[in-house]
């Protein structure tokens, strides 16, 4: 009976050692696989970030072109550089409307000051003041 128990214990020890060796081998394979996965993930992320960056530059250039078109500039031109000389202010449509309104008010004041003091259309006239043109 003693031999039977010793054989049983030695078989259990062998099984434990084999299981431990298999578990160690599996852990090493898993570690290698995780390292490979991490490296591939980092490479994929770096590639994705490059593509995003390139696309961002493309979108920024497209947005700048659309903004130039909105400003009335050709889409392939850029704003003049400050070092290139003095900037010439081209009045926009809003500036023209403001100037026309200021002239109308000034003309109304001029007519009123010349002695033509007839009542106007019943609407009060407001003076529009504006700052210097930039």
Tell me about this structure:
This protein has 134 residues and is mainly alpha-helical. Helix content is 68%, strand content 0%. The chain is rod-shaped and about 130 Å long.
How do the helices and strands line up, and which of them pair or pack?
Layout: H1 2-71, H2 93-113
Count of alpha and pi helical runs: 2
Order of helices and strands: HH
* Nearest-integer average pLDDT: 78
Structural class: mainly alpha
Q: Characterize the main sheet.
A: none
Ranges with pLDDT <50 over ≥5 residues?
A: none
From the spread of the alpha carbons, the general shape counts as rod-shaped
The span between the termini is 108 Å
Strand content: under 5%
User: What's the total count of β strands?
Assistant: 0
The helical percent reads: 55-70%
Rg of Cα set: 42 Å
In short:
This protein has 2 helices and no strands. The protein is mostly helical.
């Amino acid at each position: 009976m003693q031999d039977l128990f010793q054989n049983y214990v030695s078989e259990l020890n062998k099984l434990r050692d084999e299981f431990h060796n298999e578990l160690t081998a599996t852990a090493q394979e898993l570690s290698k696989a995780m390292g490979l996965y991490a490296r591939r993930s980092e490479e994929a992320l770096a590639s994705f970030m490059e593509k995003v960056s390139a696309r961002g530059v493309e979108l920024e250039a497209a947005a700048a072109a659309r903004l130039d078109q909105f400003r009335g500039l050709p889409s392939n031109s850029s704003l003049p550089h400050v070092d290139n000389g003095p900037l010439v202010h081209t009045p926009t449509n809003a500036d023209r409307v403001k100037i026309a309104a200021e002239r109308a008010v000034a003309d109304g004041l001029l007519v009123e000051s010349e002695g033509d003091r007839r009542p106007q259309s019943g609407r009060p006239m407001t003076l529009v003041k504006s700052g210097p043109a930039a």
